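ARCHIVE CARD
SHELF: 3
SLOT: left
DATA:
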Amino acid sequence: MKSNCDCAREMIGGSDGPWRKPFEPTGVNTTPQLDWGTHMSVIQVGLTDRTHKLDPQLVQQAAAALNIQVLRDLPQYWNVHATVRYLPESTQIPAGVWPVYLVGKLPDGMGGVHLDKRNQPYALVESVPGDDGWTLDASHETLEMLVDPSGNRLRTSFAIGIDANGKIHDTSGQFEYLVEACDPCEGSQYAYSIQGIAVSDFITPHFYDPKPTSGTRYSFAGNIPGPRQVLKGGYISFVDPQGQEWEQILYLGDKPQLKKLGPVEGASLRAIIDGVTYGPVREFRKGNPNLENPNFGEWCKLHRKKIHGVTLGRGKSLDDELLAGGLGPHG
């Protein structure tokens, strides 16, 4: 039987992984149908290295992979039309572009997506030279920024709790859930690969369905088994509409745990809640790297190396054809 880790990497055409086997989400056209004439204008996201210490080629490769993810995967479930590009200078951000900054270290309470003084979103991603884990975080923050730019989107569904066996289950009443597209399945063991770049799984709108139904996907890669379920390494945030006390269910140990956050107010609910949660989640991930597949990161590096070899070979072949046709080396 396949593990969730295996299924997470069985992506549709163009994705890859040592477990590669295309799948088609039930009832979903795997080719995004983008009607540019009737939908919102295209959102532009820019990935840029503020540390000036990361491998520029890797940053460019990550931007290209994120561009595929937001063009091909995300629109299958969310009404988002966006592109991602590489910005070589972190001090030159074109008007209208939502930047994703790769930074060396985040101040306390600064993880995730934020709003600038004009209430436009930007994201901060901690990155360290030699550790490619930041690509997963960049995917996470990009997807969440696109699904909910302001960080205040709420969805109402059945209330949940934790039973005596440590399982998340439905309870009476309703909660309002903060829409955080990657948090319930953010564990690195659920990542998948696009051209050798690790990217994050993300929830679908069915995540908030009242009951599970056969053939329904609750996350893009199929890791989440049912509505409002949280995978190990992830969390979900919610509030009872009859009160003001925010709560979370975090799965950062052997069993999920309920955490009281108290009242949350501000320009962006997500920015405040992520500021509280970022530290514990980060520590858990550092102590439990790639829980179910410790070789995935190394596989991604090897795959990128092979892609680079193919790229060089194809470039040389085409250049030889051009030279044979009479073009000079610079013509």
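SLOT: right
DATA:
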Amino acid sequence: MSRRPYILPPRPRNNIGFGVLNFLLASRWKQQGVLKNEEVEEPMNFPAKTVSACIVVMSALLAAQPASAQSANMSYFVTSNGPGKGADLGGIEGADKHCQALATAAGAGGKTWHAYLSTQAADGKPAVNARDRIGKGPWQNAKGVVVAKDVADLHSSSNNLSKQTSLSEKGDVINGRGDTPNRHDVLTGSQPDGTAFGPEADRTCKNWTSSTQGSAMLGHADRVGLRDDDASKSWNSSHPSRGQDGGCSQNDLKSTGGDGLLYCFAAN
């Protein structure tokens, strides 16, 4: 038995866009093989200018659909915001939960997300290296751009990390040096090769549990600093935090160009 034609609804007097949308949807279904040519009847005649305007709007909406697929394939981002308690992240576990929550909200919660953070040896517990907890790569941002092929590439001069590629989970550029406010400082607690610091000096704000006294090593998401040297251009080990509250508060982090942001990587 033959299928009934897909008849586009008649154009309501004051709803031209509805008819055009149906036509666009039918055209897409026809391209995808859902409908055959003979199963689609053409819409009624619409004023040319109105049709053109509606097609532009509706096509943009339909074209935007693949963005969710890109987000699902995302495996690296800079957090759009921090937990809000300075460097007190609730430990490294709390930081991981923050990454997971933001990724889930962006449509990429099917992966296991870890914050790029090191911890220092303390209370009988060994140090943890950030480079050892983020998976093997490759990693790509919310726009589908690969930022590093593997752990070695990530910590080399050939990685693809920059202000334009270190995007938030929403696909937005993070404010950097020259922007207001500057938010380029990212918490890492790590040395340039992604390993932890020794126990001699605090570089993790007491292993991410302090919002007062301490200091945390920061990286520059935009790879730009006050000087033209390696430290200023380092994405993961530029300078330690400091400030009037002791070095680890939200205000301290903001005072040097940060906001308590994190790097998040899909570990699987």
